[in-house]
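Onboarding guide, step 5: your first structure request.
Type a short instruction followed by the sequence, for example:

Predict the 3D structure of this protein.
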Amino acid sequence: MILPILSNIICFNYTFEIYMKNKITLFFLLIAQSVAAQDITFARKMLDTLTSPYFWGRGYTNNGAQKAASFLTGQLKNYGVKPMDGKNYLQDFSYPVNTFPGKMDVEINGVALIPGKDFIVSPDSRGVKGQGTLVQKDSVTFIDQADRIIVTLEKKLTWSAEQKVLDYTMIQIDKNRVKVSPGPIKIDIENEFVNNFKTANVCGMVKGTSKPDSLIVFTAHYDHLGGMGSKTYFPGANDNASGVTQVLSLAKYYATHPQPYTMAFIFFSGEEAGLLGSKYFTENPLIPLKNIRFLVNLDLEGTGVDGITVVNATIYPKEFALLKRINEKGNYLVKINSRGKAANSDHYLFTEKGVPSFFWYTQGGIAAYHDVYDISATLPMNKYEDMFKMILKFNESLMGKGIQ
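The system replies with structure tokens like these:
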């Protein structure tokens, strides 16, 4: 009787072991699904927050940039990410910029136009108050010579930031909002040129467990265009609350999952005025640039239904091939496009210093860019989680832990 009893016990133990393994597998699968759901919930919360009126476009009026820097500092501190220099999350710097904090009133043909929707003022324009008559110069250009005002009709209104002020005022109008040729104009626009706009990069890191002198760096610019007048601001959801959110997600993750390499996180200011934050950091680095194994810059990360384009792919073909292999295995994105060197975001100044860097941006979905329609509510974020997972795998491989 002993052998049958032993056989039954062994069979029971084996069955119980299989049962427990399945339960454990299901448990971790449920945790993974929960974390994924938490991530997209977190992302939506960050997007809604960063694009809210409180931050006023994270720009040059209403203390938008300063409020955003303070918010990001608080986030890093809450996650347990340490200041990059060991003392302060903020790397202060300043630069000149033209701003529009006050009046933003334009009437054409007796009709009041809505700032941001009907018209924008060129960011290098001077302030002006007066009324006159526009004279047509060509099919899209009209001039009030006495008041030094130029009006142009545009297919799309795209705003930016400038570090200078010209001696005239340019108004760009959505051509679909004007039914007849512009004639009489009444205008009251206030500008303020700030010689020493004070801002800061926000910098943090999670120290590596075995190779702390080797770094992987994630960057995103948190600044946007701010406000145009006292009633209109540019939310900047895709550009670049989306990239900021992804870097925050990475910081939050790595704070509780330290890696062999040090993980560093930089949120740049001054990108919209000419890559000024990354320029300042690369000229005054808080970490040895030569120790950076790789840098990934995330800008325009809110779509992705048509994949991503990777800048510097042709400069670093080995890492690009690695990224493509990871994507093919994980089936994260429908396509990864290759692009060469380009000075179109904050990675560029690092590339110029010899730091291996990628900048990738998503493709497909909404077309809102540098306008008042780049809002959280219409940003799909449909590849946010997949890109997060792909980045984790890419980092593992860079550290020799995954696909080679």
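Each response can be followed by summary notes, for example: The mean pLDDT is 92.
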